[in-house]
């Protein structure tokens, strides 16, 4: 996941991270706090799809929910904040998250007397396999296919 960002909704600091697949994940505890849901676990069990819940690898794992589950919680909440949260999400946070700063960008990398084009996307750097082979050579042992039948 990318480095977390911490937008503030009505004095509540949320935590949002983007996974490598582009999905956004929100810390469930602060979402429930913003929606005035007293029992976080019950809310997640009752209203969220299990595939949209992740638990971190901290000493005390922290539940994170995807955007769909955030919307599910906000639609099931009876708090007057729920509608304001949805408006803030659509008008402020999502446009920021999808802004051009989150789009991939190309850079030039000079190494071993070669100029390579690299892509920066979601806090990771990407190179084409062709460019990698130009720099490191074509060593067959590095490219050997797995003997695993599922990968054939």
In spatial order, strands of the major sheet run 3-4-6-5
User: How many beta-strand runs?
Assistant: 9
Strand percent estimate: 15-25%
Radius of gyration: 21 Å
Query: Structural class of the helices, strands and pairings?
Result: alpha+beta
Report how far the terminal alpha carbons are from each other: 30 Å
Average pLDDT, to the nearest integer?
A: 82
Please write the string of helix (H) and strand (E) elements. EEEEHHEEHHEEEHH
Biggest sheet overview: 4 strands, antiparallel
**What is the share of helical residues?**
25-40%
InterPro entries: BRO_N_domain (IPR003497)
Domain Bro-N: 13-101
Protein name: Bro-N domain-containing protein
Pfam families: Bro-N
Question: Can you describe this structure?
Answer:
This protein is α+β, with helices and mostly antiparallel strands. The chain has two domains: 6-98, no CATH class; 103-140, no CATH class. It is 36% helix and 24% strand. It has six helices and nine strands. The chain has helices at residues 28-34, 40-47, 67-76, 81-97, 129-136, 140-143, and strands at residues 8-9, 12-13, 16-18, 24-27, 53-55, 63-66, 105-111, 114-121, 124-126. Strands 3-4-6-5 form a four-stranded antiparallel sheet. Strand 8 and strand 9 (124-126) form a beta hairpin. The protein starts with 7 loop residues before the first strand and ends in a 9-residue tail after the last helix. The mean pLDDT is 82.
């Amino acid at each position: 996941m990318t480095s977390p960002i911490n937008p503030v909704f009505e004095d509540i600091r949320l935590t949002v991270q983007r996974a490598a697949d582009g999905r956004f994940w929100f810390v469930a505890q602060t979402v429930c706090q913003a929606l005035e849901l007293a029992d976080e676990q019950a809310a997640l069990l009752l209203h969220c799809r299990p595939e949209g819940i992740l638990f971190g690898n901290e000493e005390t794992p922290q539940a994170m929910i995807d955007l769909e589950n955030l919307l599910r919680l906000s639609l099931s909440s009876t708090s007057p904040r729920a509608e304001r949260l949805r408006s803030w999400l659509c008008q402020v946070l999502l446009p920021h998250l999808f802004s051009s700063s989150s789009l991939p960008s190309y850079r030039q990398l000079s190494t071993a007397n070669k100029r390579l084009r690299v892509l920066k996307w979601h806090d990771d750097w990407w190179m084409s396999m062709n460019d990698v082979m130009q720099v490191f050579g074509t060593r067959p042992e590095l490219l050997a296919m797995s003997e695993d039948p599922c990968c054939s």
